[in-house]
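Entry type: protein chain
Record version: 2
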Amino acid sequence: MTQHILIRHRVKDFDKWFNAFLEDESNRKDNGVNHHNIFNVPGDSSDVVVHLMLDDIERFQNFLNSDKLKVIMESAGVEDKPVIYHNITNS
């Protein structure tokens, strides 16, 4: 079953963050992410929401907790601890 994850955080510079996000595509795919969408609040590009679709939540949890991802997020300018939402129903 496809799982949906929403991740919301603030970034210093959207363009810098977005480039880092794109450069990490293979890492996300290796950790079960099949598709993504990116949203931000109109008029505030530093407020970012990432929607991820994946099949293996355990593999993705390991990815979220990895030191590698922490380093990537820090260098990309993530300013706060991400808020992560996981879907609990599918329809």
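Comment: The helical segments are 14-23, 25-30, 57-64, 67-76.
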